Amino acid sequence: MTNRDFSDSVKQSAITDNLRQNNGDVCCALCGTKLLSINECHFDHVFPFAKGGKSTLENCQILCISCNLKETDKELHD
User: Do residues 31 and 66 touch, judged by C-beta distance below 8 A?
Assistant: First the structure.
């Protein structure tokens, strides 16, 4: 695992937080698509790793494959 990767404990916490926020479903943070399995979850840096973002829970969001592939290394809030 590199510093870029989220640890298993961060991923688990991100899933737990996402489940709480979405009434028991895991959903994409951008489009809201319901994700049916862990294989559909992409763990993404809110503030890009390439720009100094850390691999912490506070900087982790769950995206669907489609939303993650549309991204570049820019901030989502730009």
Answer: yes
Contact between 24 and 17 under an 8 Å Cβ cutoff? The reply is: no
**List of residues 6+ apart from 65 with CB closer than 8 A:** 40, 42
C-alpha span between 41 and 26 (Å, rounded): 9
DSSP summary character for residue 33: P
Other C-beta atoms lying within 10 Å of the C-beta of residue 78? 4
Quote the CA–CA distance of 53 and 59 in Å, as a whole number.
7
73 closest CA partner among 59, 53, 57, 58:
53
Residue 76 token pair:
């989502």
One pLDDT digit (tens) per residue for the chain, 78 residues: 568 899 999 999 999 999 999 999 999 999 999 999 999 999 999 999 999 999 999 999 999 999 998 865 455 555
